[in-house]
Glutathione S-transferase (Massilia glaciei), 207 residues
Amino acid sequence: MIQVLGKPSSINVRKVLWTCVEIGEPFVQESWGSGFRSTDAAQFKALNPNAMVPVIRDGDFTLWESNTICRYLAAKHGRADLLPRDAAARAKVEQWMDWQATELNNAWRYAFMALVRQSTLHPDAHAVTASVAGWNRHMGILDDQLSKTGPYVCGPEFTLADIVLALSVNRWLMTPMTRPAYAALAAYMELLRQREGFRLHCANGSP
């Protein structure tokens, strides 16, 4: 049984927990991070020198970086539906996973820290406005993709890309700000609500 180290409200931890539900991987979750055991502790930094969650321990094997963990779990269980074996199809899934981790995350970071976390380190109203605009623009890119490929991001089948992106859409929807009404995104989230992993680890009250 794998160990998942990280607090269950973390968006990146929830990617891993949802993936475990999809593949039927039993796990034990240990809460690390703000409000719980400190990731700056030597015990944790020995597992991940970046002092970030999540980390998994699978026997003697330790791994960090949430999207990489999701890919590892799918590959370990031979889940070609979640992570295709065909090189081109797999690259498309990984393309959207990487976009979520880089382009999309960078767009929302300032707005989320200011509007949800109420961070005193993010007081600039102009920066918040710019971040919201960038965030909405990136959501428009995803909405356009879904309107072309739906019902899922990479076509007719649910993949790992949908896990990581659905959590980002959930964060966008739960942040108190003005946002466009994107029809394809709304239909996408309604479809995903049918999945147990979504109900447990995406629609769990955490942005």
